[in-house]
Amino acid sequence: MTFLETIFARLEKDAGAPVLQEVRNGRIVSTTGSELLSLVAQAREFLAAHNLQKGDRCALLAPNSIRWVALDLALMAEGLIGVPLDMRQTPAELAAMMKDCTPALICCAENALIAQIQTIWPAAPAIAIFESIFAGKYAPTGAQSVPHHDNSDAVTVIYTSGTSGEPKGVVLNAANVTFMLGCTNQRLDQLMGSRTEPENVFQYAPFCFAAAWILLLTSLSRNSVLTLSTDLTKLADEIKLAAPNYFVNVPMFLERVRAAIESAIRKRGGWASVVFNRARRAYVESRGGSTRILDSWSHLLAHSLMFPAIRKSIGPNLKALICGSAPLSLETQLFFMMLGIPVLQVYGLTETTAICTMDVPGHVAPGHVGPVIPEIEISLGENSEILVRGPNIFPGYWQRPSETAKALVGGWFHTGDQGEVDASGNWRITGRLKNLIVLNSGHNVAPEPLEQKLAAQLPEAQQVVLVGNQRSFLSALVTVAAANGSYSAKVQSALDALNTTLPHYKQIRAFRILPEPFTQDNGLLTTMGKFKRDAIAARHSGEIEEMYRKKPA
Predict the structure, then answer these.
(1) Which helix (H) or strand (E) holds 156?
(2) How far apart are CA 37 and CA 48, in angstroms?
(3) Integer Cα distance of 181 and 179 in angstroms
(4) % of the chain beyond a pLDDT of 90
(5) Kind of pairing, strands 412-421 and 408-409?
(6) Strand pairing of 169-173 and 437-438?
(7) Which residues pair with 61 in a beta bridge?
(8) What pLDDT score does 287 carry?
(9) All structural domains of the chain
(10) How far apart are CA 108 and CA 127, in angstroms?
């Protein structure tokens, strides 16, 4: 069976049970297997009425919702190719991607956005509002066929984030997705163990990201109830309502949760703050084989009295947090592990159907992203570039044969990421080739590890970005909200301490403090929180030039 046949069979099996939920105005709204199939049938009637041909693209321009899921399933069932897009991007960016994939139909959730798209792109194809698709006009008139795909049939085009250039449409086919759902289901079975009741899953990342889409399809294919976030400003409340066993995260979210917990403990002060800090020190030191007696007692006390309350505040039923999309700092992973919440890391790209490696529950190596999943091969190429081949590798970029040829050489996909593997087979991501800083001395420096180390020494800092390409030394841009005059001294002290551990060419010899953080709104972050390094360098070229006018002593 293909992945879609498996999903439809599961929805029929659980016809009377909840399979998908939304959080709306502080309450859970559920849909059963039969109700979701009914919505899918309604959407299929709508698509059939528009005389679309197999292989036509249809852009999905809407936030996560039960209707979004129904329409996506309907597109695949009709042999069409869904192109999910992120509503948080600008209308100009959205129009550019749609012009690239040439959709036969655009399905949009908001009239205002439709008007903006049509202004930018007067020649846009037909646009349908979600409300009209599910308004009842297209009620199914009879039994519909069970969907089937050949392995080579394209099922989606997902656009890359465009951190280092123009976004490219990644084509994923039925074989890619069928293989990947087998992998994710196997790993989740290991996490959840034998059980008869449905597992609870939460989702806040938009489905236009491959990992979020794969989690959706995985959840629909297994005995689970997936709850969709509808308001990112109320995530903490929504997570409590959903009470998930696990959910997929980006590092930025886990960093914020950690910072909020640490801030709350600092504000409490007194006994709680002392015990927590000693407990954390004991946990970290114990991993190296030694602890202080007083710290050990503090850890036991915190483990009994403090950590359970913190875990409950995050999610009372959590078995694990799953994290991917960007490097997670070791300190943050250890923080949650100390609380008793495992963080399982996943590594992959859109081109690898979201996943290449996954932590094995119960066998996590902190700071690593787990072993390669079965049937996939990973090797290292020039400059420690990670090369991947296997049934998860995409067939190519949409209408970009030359880009596809560059990415797929000799059957291996060149990820552009740098990595290393330990003796146990656990991989670690060390950098991104396109981010590599090449000093004029000829030394190559991956900025990400140094940025993480410096950020760990500056908890008040929001972001740290290294610069120095074709310069004689490295410098740092540090964003800090409302930094006072003494903060420069704190940054310098952190740099002095870090530099003593580094070879001369990796030492950071200058810095500038920026009051405005890098955000999606100011065009310096992607929607998944990754730095747009070229844009940052262009925006702050004045500050960067100032750091290099005089070489520091």
Answers:
(1) strand 154-159
(2) 16
(3) 6
(4) 69
(5) antiparallel
(6) unpaired
(7) 85, 108
(8) 80
(9) 3-245 (3.40.50.12780), 251-316+318-433 (3.40.50.12780), 436-549 (3.30.300.30)
(10) 7
Residues 224-239: tens digit of each pLDDT: 999 999 998 899 899 9
Q: How far is CA 233 from CA 204, 237, 527, in A?
A: 11, 9, 15
- Asked if 376 contacts 388 with a C-beta cutoff of 8 angstroms, the reply is yes
Nearest to 33, CA basis, from 51, 20, 15, 8? 15
Q: What CA–CA distance (Å, rounded) separates 329 from 466?
A: 16
Render pLDDT for 408-463 as a digit per residue (tens, 0 to 9): 999 999 999 999 999 999 999 988 888 888 888 778 888 988 998 999 888 888 89
Nearest to 380 by CA among 430, 334, 338, 322: 430
Please give the residue that has the higher pLDDT: either 195 or 122.
Answer: 122
Q: Which amino acid is at 505?
A: Y
Q: Which residues contact 277 (CB under 8 A, 6 or more apart)?
A: none
Contact 64/206 with Cβ under 8 angstroms? Answer: yes
Positions of E strands within 313-435: 320-323, 343-347, 357-358, 377-380, 385-389, 396-397, 408-409, 412-421, 427-432
Query: Structure tokens of 500?
Result: 């003593």
pLDDT band at 165; cut points 50, 70, 90? low
CB 524 within 8 A of CB 465: no
Residues in CB range of 220: below 8 A, 6 or more apart: 7, 10, 11, 19, 20, 69, 226
pTM over 0.85: yes
Measure the CA–CA gap between 425 and 121, rounded to whole angstroms: 49
Find the mean pLDDT for residues 171-193.
Answer: 97
Do residues 59 and 81 make contact, with C-beta atoms less than 8 angstroms apart?
no
Tell me if 281 sits within 8 A of 265, measured CB to CB.
no
Q: Tokens standing for 410? A: 């000799």
Long-range contacts of 269-276 (CB under 8 A, 24+ apart): 272/306, 274/298, 275/301, 275/302, 275/306, 276/302, 276/306
pLDDT value at position 477?
A: 96
Cα distances (angstroms) measured from residue 327 to each of 333, 349, 388: 11, 13, 18
Per the prediction, the chain carries an average pLDDT of: 91
pLDDT at 233: 87
Element (H, E) at 263: helix 251-268
Q: What is the chain's alpha carbon radius of gyration, rounded to the nearest angstrom?
A: 24
Q: Is the pLDDT of residue 472 over 60?
A: yes
pLDDT tens-place string over residues 284-309:
888 877 777 777 888 889 899 999 99
Residues forming a β-bridge with 20: 31, 226
Largest CA distance in the chain: 80
Amino acid at 542: G
Query: Once rounded to an integer, what is the mean pLDDT over residues 63-87?
Result: 96
